[in-house]
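The passage that follows is intended for readers who have already worked through the single-chain material. We present the inputs for a multi-component assembly, then the predicted structure in tokenized form, and finally a short commentary. You are encouraged to pause after the input and sketch how you expect the pieces to fit together before reading on.
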Amino acid sequence: MKKRPAQSRSSGEWLIAVPPYVWLVAFFLVPFLIVMKISLSQAVIAQPPYTPVFDLAAGWEGLKAYVRALSLSTYAFLFEDELYLFSYLKSLQVATLSTLILVLIGLPLAYGMARAPDRAQPILVVLVILPFWTSFLIRVYAWVNILQRDGLLNDTLLALRIIDEPAAWLASDTAVYIGIVYSYLPFMVLPLYANLLKLDESLLEAAADLGCPRWKSFFLVTIPLALPGLAAGALLCFIPILGEFVIPDLLGSSRTMMIGQTLWMEFFSNRDWPVASALAVVLLALLIVPIMLYETVQSREIERR
Amino acid sequence: MRRRFSPFNLVSVALGIAFLYVPIVILVIYSFNDSRLVTIWGGWSLRWYAALLEDVAMQEAAVNSLLIALSSATTATVLGTLAALTLTRLGRFRGRTPFVAMVYAPLVMPEVITGLSLLLLFVAVNLDRGFLTVTIAHTTLILCFVAVVVQSRLVGFDRALEEAAMDLGCPPLRTFLSVTLPTIAPAIAAGFLLAFSLSLDDLVIASFTTGPGATTLPIRIYSEMRLGVKPQINAVCTIFIAVIAIVVIAASILTRHAERRRATE
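Having made your guess, compare it with the prediction:
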């Protein structure tokens, strides 16, 4: 697959790149630049509630005034108020811990799937993908049903006499972790499974022939070979979890908010667009390294095929 | 082939699948509960489905969602397929690296960022928020999923077929339509379905970019959910799940059928 098409084949071929390129620049790249700009603006009580984005009619003088009007005051504000710092820390904590839990649950599941009889494998894959297609919102809501005060979990635990009185599961960190692990499990399992499937069985046999116990060859052979899949799955979970809004909003408590909730609140309740934009820019800055790692893993995976 | 499906593997697969399905099954069962209190079982009943027939706001939201999903999935399928062709066919052109980044980034980008940035764009260019803006926003998000799905098919595609057609004097566009397109059609269909369901599902981006008269189903369901657990919501969710399950199962049967037919040819 290394063969490149001859240049002369069709001269108009490059035209296919134009529509998606233009679309992504207009609706993905440009919006980010606007976010950056607005994060540097002052909040004004107006509609829209910030100083104008650009006014080309004002010419060179206008441009100078425009640059002078940009200010870092919104960012300074973010660092003054502990609320924002706590939100970021909370998000980092939740994303890290839930990614770890996802690895611990996803790895045995993906490994078991890759080991399942050939006939069962397509069915298992569909079974794992299916919840991913059903609504995110519905899957989180399913847990509200179970975790609420007179929900199934409390009923079961009371019936089994494990607890004496109903526990408050909702509006807690536990509920958020359950919701996140549940929602993101397919994202962890599928890349891992695809990777484990390609595992060369003879390597494990060789290890066994040389007297390596199976549990040991799992850690010494399987895991290192599965590392790209593990990395892809972990990043595919970690990055969106960091900005997660729906799950902590429906399952978590309102005392400590994740950054997605804080951003949502600044935007919809406080209508402070510059602060919301600055929060988004800082979140993006936190995500740059994981996103670049993810893109490297992705493109390497595609070249390899 | 000496794969060992040990009891440990069996248990971890069974537990994993159970974890994924038990909550959904419980939700579906409760949607048929006659009792007004969601968790107290009052016998089987369809009353909450009947109640949905009266809920005009919910129905309007469902129609909005379907229209938005249909139009954004169609646009995204065209753009996503072109993006996939660009990534696999054009080789290393100038500007490829930023293009690759723009195709992959929306897949993992937190929705609050995408939603906020698109809204700020629409405000900056003075575009009234509503049906059109949600459709544009969804197209941007889901075209990347289509691109990835179609690209994985194109990578395994045997280009000798195309070259043979062109050597026999078939013009490039015709070659594309009669050789390339039929081969990647299952991937395009799968991409379309994925795009459709992602658009139907989205709450966060739609909340940022919507306007009067364009309330989508997830926005509507979400505002009901915030008021607490209600049996009608379980009923809506069950219908939603049933539709998606039928579509996905039909799609997977169709693609397997198509692949088997190709294998025998």
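Commentary: Chain A touches chain B through 98 residues (CB under 8 Å). The CA atoms of residues 245 and 260 of chain A lie 5 Å apart. How closely did your sketch match?
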